[in-house]
């Protein structure tokens, strides 16, 4: 049993090694069809505790795609990516780097918020998704890439990098460089950097922000020469 004609899911969850969003991804229909279908994704257990699916946002013809890790608390509540403090910091850095945030497509490697919570009324604490959860969500990211066909992907943090480039990815080793790799069957240019939330957590926030800005300027130059 699997997805039913009404978009819901009938049947038990698959075993962990069989997690995948693949059966829920529609053929055709562009971003609106993908977003609608993703709202009912049951490809891994993360949908059980999350408020809602947080799909990507932006134009289908965006030249740059920004890929983060997963929705945070505010994104989970509002249903939109990068609307919390990290998103606001990212918008500021993009503008300073010479890229208009409105011209970018923003999304996450994982579309549901994964968190821990000591008590129901306590604050929900972000928890990094597992490799299997990232792999399960991969078909959504592949579908977004196929529709948007960005000229450049900005990889925000280690989790997004591992989702796109494999488990050996280390953001500290390649940040601020232009990589050329085949991703989901397409040749892509990528510029990795840190996730903006790491800037907010940094002891020296000013230095961390300067590093993010420097990496995004590399991306802006790569986009300009694309």
Can you walk me through this structure?
The protein is α/β, with parallel strands linked by helices. It starts with 29 loop residues before the first helix and ends with a helix. The protein is 37% helix and 14% strand. It is built from 8 helices and 7 strands. It has one domain (56-224): Uracil-DNA glycosylase-like domain (Uracil-DNA Glycosylase, subunit E, 3-Layer(aba) Sandwich), CATH 3.40.470. Strands 2-1-5-7-6 form a 5-stranded mixed sheet. Strands 3-4 form a two-stranded antiparallel sheet. Helix 1 (30-38) packs antiparallel against helix 4 (131-148). Mean pLDDT is 91; it is low at 1-11. 39% of the residues are buried.
The CATH superfamily appears as Uracil-DNA glycosylase-like domain
How are the strands of the biggest sheet laid out side by side? Answer: 2-1-5-7-6
CATH topology: Uracil-DNA Glycosylase, subunit E
Q: At the first level of CATH, what is the class? A: Alpha Beta
Poorly predicted parts:
1-11
Oligomer: single chain
Report on the biggest sheet.
5 strands, mixed
Number of domains: 1
If helices are DSSP runs of H or I spanning 4 or more residues, what is the number of helices?
8
- Beta-strand content bin: 5-15%
CATH architecture: 3-Layer(aba) Sandwich
The radius of gyration is 17 Å
Count the strands?
Answer: 7
| Average pLDDT reading | 91
Distance N to C terminus:
45 Å
- Secondary structural class: alpha/beta
Family: Belongs to the uracil-DNA glycosylase (UDG) superfamily. Type 4 (UDGa) family.
Pfam family, one: UDG
Organism: Streptomyces plumbiresistens
InterPro entries: UDG_Type-4/5 (IPR051536), Ura-DNA_glyco_family4 (IPR005273), Uracil-DNA_glycosylase-like (IPR005122), Uracil-DNA_glycosylase-like_sf (IPR036895)
